[in-house]
Structure formats: structure tokens, C-alpha cells
Model the fold of this input.
Amino acid sequence: MSVVSSRSTATTISSILKGKTASSNVPSSRNRVTFQLPKNLKNILLNYQSPIERKSYENLISTLRDANIKDNEFVELLQEVRPCISLLGNDHKFLVNALVKINWTDRGEEATDAYKAFLEDLVCVHSYHCKLVIDQLICLFKVSDEDKEWEDGKPGEQDIIKLNHVHNVIFKFLKIVPMSSTILVQSLRTHYPYYKKSAHSHQVYMYFSLQIIEYAPQLRSEIISTIIEKLTILDVNVPRTEIENYREKDEDEDEEVFKIDSVKETDKADSDHPLAHTLDICMDILMIYVEEYCHPDGDLNQDNLKKIYFELLQPFEKVVLHTHASHHVQFIMFYICSFKTAVAEAFLNWLWQKVSNPNVAPIIRQSAVSYIASLLARGNFIPITLITGLLQDMTNWIHSYIAAQDSLESGNSDVRAHTVFYSVCQAVFYIVGFRSRELVSTRKNLLFLQGLNFTKIISCRLNPLRVCLPVVVQHFAAVTRTYQLAYCYSIMEHNSRSNLPVLQTTNRFVKWLDTFFPFDPYVLIRSSQKIDPIYLHYQGSNVDLNPSLSTTDSNDQENDEDDDFMDVSYPQDSLNYHRDKFSYSSSPGFIHA
Done:
């Protein structure tokens, strides 16, 4: 039963909050408060400040909070309260609060229908109670950390019924109270589970939030933005290295008990790093929603695809693009780009406009070009024509930048003044090194690469080979040397004998260009099933990474290559501490303290 299609028309349910009934949260029968319907409720409300009625009024509030009210008593209470709704103004906010917090979703059909009618009348007559009511409705989905996760990630029939009770009320509010949509979005954001809460807490809340979109599609953009923002917070708090270290430690502890290969993927996911498991479940739910919205009948709906692409692009631009050290949440854009080449092309063009716009902050331009390079390298759905088109645009920009610098009598030699230039150069080097098999597969593609004039780029006075990551430079140099596109080694050797460029800050020195590759391997277990079929792992290249190595050593090195892509930095000297890999590098332009 999917996020999109699982809503039921059933009207009765038992609580999903710890699987208990309404009576399970109250004291034993001998200490239980007995509910007694107040006599002449209207008179109590009108004269609640008088000494005579004050005690009755306070007893009523206390009883509503603590008593175990049976269904028939509950219906009688609502029958008494509804004619008095006009009296429930701000002066009676404590009474209204007690009425709103009564457990009602576990009751019979007559009781739940009566309570829904009461809530609708209340917000119609007193719209200022709308926030209180909506907040309480949203809180019904904040489950305990001890609650068990849904089997196979899908809610049971009883859970769906409870969800629908709340959805029915919210749906009515959106129709009868104009300001309720704004209040609803604010409440969803405010009550979103803290990132350290259990995976099931996030699972229920996210499922509920996405269901609202079914009957309130006008809120899709804001709800998705909220989800992306919260997932980003979760993502940056569980780095890829922390996930891998946790798994390695877990495997070491369990290797004496069983072989890890015999464990099912679902079992692995359940025993994963707690925060990684939460993020995994949430990413899986979001990807399912996007997939089913774009394929409502099993076939791609281009109108739906276009709508949700722009709705995802908004939080990506606002949150993800600006975020340091996110590892997985950005893959939602990777995933939707795989649906249609036109979407991938639109996304890449949008990123390139950010890069080529001098009015955009340099740090954002660096981030955008990193996304371009990583998407072109990792997306197996990206056609070669799109790769060559972006390479052409980037090299044209590089040559224009070089020409502009050459026209100056004295150029600025400070590396910090040219960070965008070096980032674009590094993106070109990265793409050529990673996708070299496709880029040299035909004579036409080789002629295209020759036309990019790499020799001028590497020999310009800005010297990008000196600043870009050595691991990137190493593979680019190997490819261009093998296919006689450029010869980088003489410049690299000269750079190795010179002092490396240094960026000085108040608390540290940073060598080389600080950057990252946002679509490095996706390590979440459950949701990776949607990413793996469209993801390109590095397959090595038919080039010698170090011409000084013997043939035997070179072959051994190629055989040992994994998806870290480039694990040999240049030069091979005391600076080997910076042996960056194409996977697992640092975020663009950020200085780590």
C-alpha cells in the first residue's frame, strides 16, 4: 500500500501510539476518575467566574483531562457542548484545550463523527482556535520511540483508519477556514520530529505529511520543502564515514556468530546506524512518492514530472545547494533526473547558469559546478551528447576567462580570486578522467576532445594543474597523455618542485582546491535499491596512471582500483597525507576548523 494510494474509507481504528487502547494510559480502575456529565453546562460557562459555579467549572476541566470517558458519555458530552460553542471564546481557552486533547480517534463511528462535527463548528465560530486544534491534530502522529516500525514500511489497515480520521478533519478545515492552510504548514514544520527521534517517528510523520498533498495539492511545494529541509539536517548529522565505521565495527563484533553475506538486506537496514536507518526510511518514502506521482498509471506523466521537478528544485536551491557535507538527500534530484533526459538537461543547464553568473556568490558557483561534474560522472542515464555539450560550455568559459586574464597587464596571483575558475577546470578534468571510456570510444569523440584545446588550459599562467586536487590531475594527465590530447607531466613535475599554493585563514592553511563530489557512492541500504540501477560506479580506464611505474606494477594498480576512482595522488612525496579520493572528499570551498 503506497504513500499515494493507501488511504482507506474505513472509519474505526485502534491507536497506533504504542498499540494501546484509550484506557491503557489512565490509572487502574480503583484510582480512575469517574466522568459525570455536568448539569446545565450553559449556566456554568456563563457564570464560571462566580464563586458558586467556579468550582463546577474547574471540576469539569479536571474531569475532561483525567477521566476515562466511555463512548456513550462522550457523545452525550458533545451534545451538551455543541449548543454552547458560541460561548467558548478566549476566556475559556483552558476548557477548549481540554476538549481538544480528549482521545477520540479510537472510538466508535458515532463518537468520532460527533467529535469531527464539534471541531468543525468550533473553528467556524472561533477561528482563533484553529491553530490550537490543528496543532493537536498534528501531534496525534508523534509516536513513541518504543513503537515498532511498520512491517515492510507500510502502515496496517488500522493505522490507515486513524490517519483518515485526522485527514477528514483537516480537509474540512482547509475548505471552511481560509487561513488554515498557512497554519497547517507552520504546524507541520514546528512539530516535525527531532532528528534523533526514532525511525518510526519520522516514518509516521512523513507518511502523514505526504498524504495531505492528496487532497491539498496546493501545499505540495511547501510540504516537500519542509521534508527536504528536515532530511538535510538529518543527513549532515550522519556523515558517510560515520556510517561506514559503524558498520565495520558491527561486522567485527558479529563475524564470530554468522557470516554477514547471509543476512538479508532488510535485516542489515534494521541493524544499521540509527540515524542512517532513519534517513534511509525517509529517503525511501520520498522516492516512492516521487516515482508514483510521476507514474500514476505506470507510465510517465510529463505534466506531473514537470511540476514536481520545480517543486524539488526550490528546496534544493534554498537548502541543499548551500549545505556543507550533505551526502544523500541530494540524490532525490539525481533520481528524478533519471526519469527523462530532458529533466537531467534542464537541471544541468540550471546549474550551469549559476556557475556562469558572476553575480552569484563564488561559494555557490563552486558548489553548482561540483554538482554538474558529479552528475555527469555518476549518472548512467546521462547520454554522451549531454556530457560533450557541457564540456564544450565549460571549456569555452575557461578559455574566455584565460583570455580576460591575459589581457590584464598584471593579473591577480591570489588563488582565492580565481576559485570559480579552478573549480570549473577541476570539473572538466574530473569528467574526462571518470568518463574516459565513453569519451574516447569513437573517432568523433576523440576529435571533439582535441578541439577543446586542453594544452592552452593547462599551460596558462593561472596553472590549474597546480591548484586542482592531485588525484584528479593524475587521472586527467594519464588520459590526455595516452590519447595525445595534452601533456601534463612536465608541468606537474615543475609544480612538484615549487611551493604549493597556500590559502591563509585566521586559524589554518589550506592546500589545493577545497571541493567535493555530491553524488559519491550512496551507502544507505534500503533506498539504494532505487539508486543502484541508475548509478555508474567507476570501472577503471585503459591508461597508465603513472608512466614511471613498470608494466607489472601498473597492471596490478589497475586491478586494485575500486569505486574510490582515483586513489593515487600526485606528487608521491611527503604530502601523501592529502591522498584525496574521488569519493569521500570535502565540501566545496568550506574551511574546516
Remarks:
- The mean pLDDT is 81.
- The chain has 27 helices and two strands.
- The radius of gyration is 30 Å.
- The CA atoms of residues 350 and 368 lie 9 Å apart.
